[in-house]
């Protein structure tokens, strides 16, 4: 039964290729889709599948993440018993890996009444029905079920993600990395279903041996000692592990079919409510194929772009194929093409910023141009 499962969101994610947007926040807290955060998808997937006990494990730069999730109310997780638990290890002087974080909070695992665990990262953006995956896991009666996506665009997408090598019975034989050499791949979504007892055993093994860097690494290196099966997810998926992937994921949301699937296919994606006023469009504004959040003022041209809350686009300004995050001001006659602008940036009059489809220009938080 689904009420016998708890969720763990492990935010020990590689931020190397998206560092421009993670200097002041964890990857999970990056704004996406005009009014969401990346973690909203992982949290909503678990809640929509009936999980009511979810732990978030994070450490550095967690202020914005903690502020966003709060008590878990938007996801109906402000409850007793269970609910949302945030374990923030940011006060430590040295960085911890995920097994050390989990080991330091094993009391949470022991005290949780659920006997099974869904372990997930946050940067896999999709809308997944965990109930179907749990049914598959219980029918197979394996130690671990890992969820994967079969793709045919591996040379361009999901670079540096884990790749599953599986046999005809969906048994996982080994795990590698996507180096971009092949198109047809089985991409691990870094979502694992297992018994809580096994999870604690793997954490203990990792800590005692000292030979594994992460829990994921522990599972991968012990494939031959465990029975690991793979469950295929067939919906829309992107891994936001680089600036290019972040840009592509946002641009994909401009397609109505993708938006409907991503935000509604297996339940809605929830986020923190800000109660901003409706966006104001002047008579001279022109907006085409864009997503614009509430609380904005649009006087200029916006085309194929994602505009977050509280953005002011002045008269004569032109924004195309760009992502503008919260509380930015784009002044008169500025031109922005293929640009990602972080929060609280002011672009002065008559400025022109140009990026590229493959390599968008990133303007960091609170910059002034």
TrEMBL record:
It comes from the Bacteria. One of its GO terms (molecular function) is glucose-1-phosphate adenylyltransferase activity. Keywords: Nucleotidyltransferase, Transferase. Residues 283-356 form the Glucose-1-phosphate adenylyltransferase/Bifunctional protein GlmU-like C-terminal hexapeptide domain. CDD domains: ADP_Glucose_PP (cd02508), LbH_G1P_AT_C (cd04651). The keyword Aminoacyl-tRNA synthetase does not apply. Pfam families: Hexapep_GlmU, NTP_transferase. Its EC number is 2.7.7.27. Residues 19-149 form the Nucleotidyl transferase domain. Belongs to the bacterial/plant glucose-1-phosphate adenylyltransferase family. PANTHER family: GLUCOSE-1-PHOSPHATE ADENYLYLTRANSFERASE-RELATED (PTHR43523), GLYCOGEN BIOSYNTHESIS PROTEIN GLGD (PTHR43523:SF6). This is Glucose-1-phosphate adenylyltransferase subunit GlgD. It comes from Clostridium frigoriphilum. The lineage of its organism: Bacteria, Bacillati, Bacillota, Clostridia, Eubacteriales.
């Amino acid at each position: 039964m689904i009420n016998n499962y708890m969720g763990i969101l492990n935010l020990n994610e590689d931020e190397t290729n998206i560092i421009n947007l993670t200097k002041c926040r964890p990857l999970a807290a990056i704004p996406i889709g005009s009014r969401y955060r990346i973690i909203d998808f992982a949290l909503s997937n678990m809640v929509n599948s009936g999980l009511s006990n979810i732990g978030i494990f994070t450490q550095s730069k967690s202020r914005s993440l903690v502020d966003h999730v709060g008590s878990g109310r938007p996801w109906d997780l402000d409850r007793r018993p269970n609910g949302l638990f945030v374990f923030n290890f940011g006060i430590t002087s040295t960085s911890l890996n995920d097994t050390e974080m989990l080991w330091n909070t094993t009391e949470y695992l022991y005290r949780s009444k659920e006997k099974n665990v869904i372990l997930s990262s946050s940067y896999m953006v999709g809308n997944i029905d965990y109930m179907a995956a749990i049914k598959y896991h219980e029918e197979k009666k394996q130690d671990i079920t890992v969820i994967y996506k079969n793709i045919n665009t591996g040379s361009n997408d999901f670079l540096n993600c884990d790749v599953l090598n599986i046999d005809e019975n969906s048994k996982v034989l080994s795990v590698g990395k996507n180096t971009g050499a092949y198109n047809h791949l089985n991409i691990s979504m870094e979502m694992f279903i297992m018994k809580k007892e096994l999870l604690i055993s793997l954490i203990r093994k990792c800590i005692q041996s000292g030979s594994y860097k992460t829990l994921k690494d522990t599972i991968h290196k012990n494939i031959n000692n465990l029975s690991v099966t793979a469950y295929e997810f067939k919906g829309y998926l992107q891994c936001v592990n680089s600036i290019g992937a972040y840009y592509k994921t946002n641009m994909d949301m401009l397609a109505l079919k993708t938006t409907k699937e991503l935000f509604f296919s297996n339940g809605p994606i929830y986020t923190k409510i800000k109660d901003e006023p409706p966006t104001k469009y002047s008579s001279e504004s022109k907006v085409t194929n864009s997503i614009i959040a509430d609380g904005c003022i649009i006087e200029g041209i916006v085309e194929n772009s994602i505009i977050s809350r509280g953005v002011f686009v002045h008269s004569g300004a032109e924004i195309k194929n760009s992502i503008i995050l919260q509380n930015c001001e784009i002044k008169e006659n500025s031109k922005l093409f293929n640009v990602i602008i972080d929060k609280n940036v002011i672009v002065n009059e008559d400025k022109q910023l140009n990026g590229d489809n493959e390599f968008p220009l990133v303007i960091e938080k609170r910059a002034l141009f």
